[in-house]
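Researcher: Going back to the complex we discussed earlier. I've cleaned up the inputs and rechecked each line, so this should be the final set. Can you rerun the prediction on the complete assembly and write out the structure?
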Amino acid sequence: MLKIKNLKATINEKLILKGLDLDVKPGEVHAIMGPNGSGKSTLANVLSGKNGYETEGEIYFNGTNLNDLKIEERAQKGIFLAFQYPLEIPGVNTNNFLKTSLNSVRKARGQKELDTLTFLKLIKEKAKELNIDEKFLSRQLNVGFSGGEKKKNEILQMKLLEPKLSILDETDSGLDIDALRIVADGVNSYKNKENAFLIITHYQRLLDYIKPDFIHVLSAGKIIKTGNADLGEQLEKTGYANLS
Amino acid sequence: MKHSYDFNIEQIKNLSLEEKTFRQKNLDLFYKSGFPSKKVEDWKFTDLDVILNKNFESISNEINFKPDEKLEIIKNFKHNYIFLINGKIISTSFVYEEKNKILIKDFDQKEAANFYLANTLTLLNSALSSGGFSLEISKNYKLNKPLVIYNYFSKGLKNKILNNKNSIKLHKGAELILIDYNAGELQNNFIKNTVDTVSLDESAILKSILIQNSKSNGHFYKYIRSSLESSSNYENYILSSGLKFNKIEIEVNLNKDNSSCGIYSALNLLEDQHQEIKTRINHNSPNCKSYQKIKNVLNDKSKGVYQGKIFVKKIAQKTDAYQLSKALIVNDDAEFDAKPELEIYADDVKCSHGSTSGSIDSDAVHYLMTRGIPKKKAVKLLINGFLNEILENITINELKFFLEKILERQINGH
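Model: Rerun complete. Updated structure for the full complex:
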């Protein structure tokens, strides 16, 4: 599904990713762990198409070169990035945003756009699954939401847009244990044989709830070690410093 | 300057000799200085003389028209209405109201002599005005539905100027929502020069909403002079995006205790459109409130201007005055000018003002795009979010929904 070969990324003349390889197949959950400044968020940003990065190397998503796709096309084709810091957007109503987003994606996928009533019914269902209070949906997007509410809102968007590849960028940061469980349940209930996850995290904590098939350790812009779920527990004990 | 004017008082019907003399005197005064240019302080950001020179070969007031326009009313929105063509009443409908509570008639031109002359445009208006309406709402009568004033314009208005005067009076305790609605396709270059007087008796409430329904080459100027008695409330909403040129001057006189006013505008200017809002709030009495929120989005080569003055008389203690202008500049070629002014003679007042301008938040655009929303749509969503804030105090759902739709259309460039 996602094939990355020798990816290098530079921002402000600083080389962050220094030749990264990754192969994600449908049905797999990959975790990327690593210390601060190792390039985890850069990887997420580059995959989402954020401006300002110069890249080298190859990224293929289901056979399409990602460089040929605009930001919104990546989303329409099934890449979803849950932000580490979801933006507060004053004035923009959450429901209106969600509907515009869903219908843009549906339109691009050749599906019928939803009318307001059908949409509201759908979004209420999805919100309930994530224990999101309906009144958040009529508020301005993320404005005054707590950290946990913002992250739950990201997962709500993921479930709404039904991506093939979901990238969760430090989704566990700022979550209390209850919110963490809800978010993890949301991810687990969406997981199936057709879709894949790339989970970027500092800590083992989230991986206790979402079991990864592979754990990659990113350090100084390169993957230096790959293992199964046990690697996470090992890292928790020994830290990143002892890896070579 | 280089204008070729052909202003003719003779063609205005049924004028007494006295009226003709009065009008000629005003016309002579107008000729002395012509249309306002940037040399006049109040017009420093809007050189009307230059704008008219650029867009008009000649200007005349001779207008003959037959009321053959197709008049359409807004659907799915219950309302009373008045149809005007070129400012003259064509028909009225008040099916939702008690008819004897509402007085609507042609403006009596003899009243023109009592109008305040603010500048050379109002002078010209006093020389040439015809048509117009006067509206009175009886004591304690609260209209059940909004009143829409449809402004239609006849064909063949190229290089013409229309001059209207209107008067609106709400007696004690009366309430009205008035929607001033510029309708119809307006391809021709023409000028509309309007002077309104608004008078609110004790505890009367007037919500006045200005809407531009379609893109227009019209050049509009409006001077509104209002006076408020105790505990009355006057709110103005300005949604006039689409006009090539528009300047609205609102003078509010808070003459008695506890009267209050609000001025809210949401403009999305495109191409070379130019709109100015100029306000003067006179706090003439204690315990009055004024609130202004002016929001502009400037696209392409458009220009927006806000000049807002709050004047507080010495006796007007406990004044609460607020003024905020926010501009979103989408294109580097666009321009926004703001000139806030406070002139305060009382010592126990709360007055605040602020003015900001900035560009679209690129991180917000990115965020929306990562959710599959194309860039253009993302920008429009943000513009909408920026502008629709001014509707937050509208509590009538039906009206709010209607205005949201209007705003959305204006953001999409009609």
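Model: Worth noting: Chain A has one domain: 2-176+194-238.
Researcher: Good, that matches what I expected from the previous run.
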